[in-house]
Amino acid sequence: MVLRLLPGSAFTWAPARFIIYVALYVTLEWLSDLRAPGGMPITAWSPGLGVLFAAMIRGDGVAALALFAGAFFTETFFADALPGWTTTLFVAGIIAVVYAMVARFARAMGLDPRTERVHDVALLLSAALGGALLAGVFITLLLTGVGFLPVGQEARVTMPLLVGDMIGVAVIAPLVLRAGQARVRADMATSSFIVGVAAASAAAGGVIWVMLQDPAQYTSEFFYVLFVPVVFVALRNGLDGVCITLAATQMTLVGGLDYLGYGSGAYAQYQTLMGVLAGTGLLAGAVSSERDAASRDARAARARLKEKESEAARADRFQSVTGLASALAHEINQPMTAARAYARTAQVLSEQEGPDLARVRDYVGRSIEQIDGAAAILKGMREFIRRGDAGRSFVHPSDILSDALLLVRPLAAQSRIRLVSEPEAVDPIYCDRVQIQQVLVNLIRNAIDAISSSGQDDGVVAISIRPAGRGQVEFAVRDNGPGVDPDFAVKVFEPLATTKPSGLGLGLAISWDIVAAHEGRLWLESAAPGLTEFKFWLPSASAGEGNAMEGIDSGQP
Q1: Residue 306: is its pLDDT beyond 70?
Q2: Where are the domains of the chain?
């Protein structure tokens, strides 16, 4: 019920929230053992204050009015320790105004009600301490001013007020703020979370039982053992686990003190230590949760980056296909036209009397060859367009080169550029076939575009594959085009760097990333006019792990 009373819930009508807030405050204060040491209006701790302060942190102004009414009602009908209703009214007003101002100041300082960062938890603890200190000082001055508290006895009220209010806010407010979120409640319902918190709470209860065995001679030596389960649950279940464990520990401690008849001095001592434990546990839990959140964000960012890189590579392939489209259309049209002519001729021959079946079979065979050639081009295009994330396998470099040439040959023919293939005998490589094909297509197409833009009529692009030693296979693409401008050469592999009017500037950058991901290296060997050459090497399948890694350049050329 408590978790649904914050703004944004079904309780949107202010009078209803006010009544519920007041009822909650009074009930929780009554259940928390209204112990008044020395006749002073002081409780052992204030869980009701923690609930309403959480609502104020969420920006609900009704909670401040409810705190005033709840404090007045509680002091009047349950504590009955103040001299007259006027003093009680002023005490309730001090509590409500101080905590409303502190909550407003904390929000202005950047306190996020979700309390997901160490910064938020530290601000919340500071707000708890500041509010408790201010309320304690003003109430003490008021009681001294009306003659209810003798001069020189101010510490008897200020310190217990400070500790009780601070514990109430520090233990309850973070729990209410965190559990008010649907995602957090879902995490709290998991079996792993429940087991961890239950174990820590049970351990804390056992320590308290041992610690409170002798009311006549209480000691705080065992209290420090409580840090062990609290830190354990902080590391295991983060801030949410700490919030629940601290609440369970506080209720067990106060219940044990009351049941065994401990005096106000023991209350003050143990509650002071509880304040230290709460602050330490909350900060440790916040650090653990923030670390886990940062780890999740990093994993999500890596996944998004990988997805974006895949999308960029696919966009680059689509751009390459766009540039090859007209040439491919012409290239496919030729075999299809020839296939139709062969088939038509075979049909005419088969309809003649005494058909020459040998010629018919010959023309049908030629038609099939032309159709297979067109199908090969289309298959290569389809494989090239796909995402290229099907995984790696052992591939012979000459097969990759053949696939790449199948795609770029129509564009070279249209630009009247001669392609020269110079593969040597090399070992297979373990790679993503489509991705390495994309690198070759990018390099060859760039060479064709450079030659075409210069207006040369004797353009040549040579592609070679040769062993490079140390278990490496070297690919080289060279052309006799205009070369690469020296100013552009230094940033040729940077994303968005391009000299083409309609270029994306992604081709070489993606190619560099692909080669690097395959533990290889891509570089501009020569930028000279008439001898422009790009090279890249990849480890061969026969290379040992050490050889495959040796010589890898960790940065872009």
Answers
A1: no
A2: 1-180, 390-557
